[in-house]
Amino acid sequence: MTTQRSLALDGIRVLDFTQMMLGPLCTQMLADLGADVLKIERPGKGEWMRAMPMIGELVGGDSAAFHAFNRNKRSVTVDLKSPEGREALLEMSRHCDVVVENFRSGVMDRLGLGYEDFRAANPRIIYASGSGWGSDSYLARKGMPGQDLLVQAMSGVMMNTGRRDDPPTNCGTPIADFAASQALAIGILGAIVARDKHGIGQRVETNLYQATLNAMAQENFAVMNQKITLERSAAGIASAWNDVPYGPHPTSDGWVAIAMCPLEKLAELLKDPGLAEMDPWEERDSAKLRIDESTRRLTTAELLDVLGAADVWCAPVRTTDEALEDARTREPHRLVEMDHPKAGRITTIANPIHLSETPVSLRQVPPQVGEHTDEVIVEVLGQDRLEQLRASGALG
What we know:
Elements: E1 13-16, H1 22-32, E2 36-41, H2 64-69, E3 73-77, H3 83-93, E4 98-101, H4 107-110, H5 115-121, E5 126-131, H6 138-141, H7 148-155, H8 175-198, E6 202-207, H9 208-215, H10 217-226, E7 246-250, E8 255-259, H11 263-269, H12 284-295, H13 300-309, E9 313-316, H14 320-330, E10 335-340, E11 344-349, H15 373-380, H16 383-392
Parallel strand pairs: 1-2, 1-4, 2-3, 4-5, 5-6
Antiparallel strand pairs: 7-8, 8-9, 10-11
């Protein structure tokens, strides 16, 4: 017989001032784990990413990106420039555990909502900030925008992706935002444990740039400690620091990715003895092209059968549509369906975390702008305070 289980972060309340991807994905992870995430938005319009169309379209009036990163949250609209709104938020923080923001460095301080402001209101508060370059970076001080594409450009990602003769190539997904969102969530969880053990609040910070350098830790370690220079392969090996095979190879009807197989073994499987005589690093481009000649003679299914039977690491190269169709038909646990009041039935990606005793849950579809303002203010500050704030215009 199964019993109803609590959620891992039951009882944790978060004031969420985030926007775009870094912050919202971080706070959605906390919300999925059971935290009560109060998304603080602009009166009327809400977070500006709501209005950013993906491929020219909105879903139920909001961007697909907004839907992807804001489930399990409640929306509260407060005018951050209103003195009454500022005081209400500081008052609310006394009933909260975590504040999360990812504005440009200094913006929250100028609004009177920085770490010291919240710490004065609640000494046990955990104040988490995500930025582009870090608050103490010279890039932040000179006002350089901290955005995923720019971080990929500055960090080396673009010059390590693609072929040697290609222009700089960015990753096909915002890898800097993703890496920083996970780092920020982990930092918050660590700070919650530290507070519960030691009774202290603290500031948690991460930034896109440092998180991206960390995502490239193995490549960066090799460059710093082996005194090498990374160079992209001319033939299309997927990583600037891997020998052959490592990347996609053409078949007669598609592509197959092959990773880290000794050339001697691959030569036998592809019936090309000369391949075994080649140096996988010094001759990696010519060896890559030679492998291509052999793989083109086989269909994708035939190549996968040959390689799979010999325990070679390989996989078909699929489109996004193919990957999602496989999830729909064979592994639906990877997806979550929700009934949205404006968009109807929508599908999103399930949380990747699995906890045996306190599992994540879907409790709330992405909220409408200000949908929970009255509910939350009454719950946290009381009915009289709601009426005062409404009268002052602080809630929009």
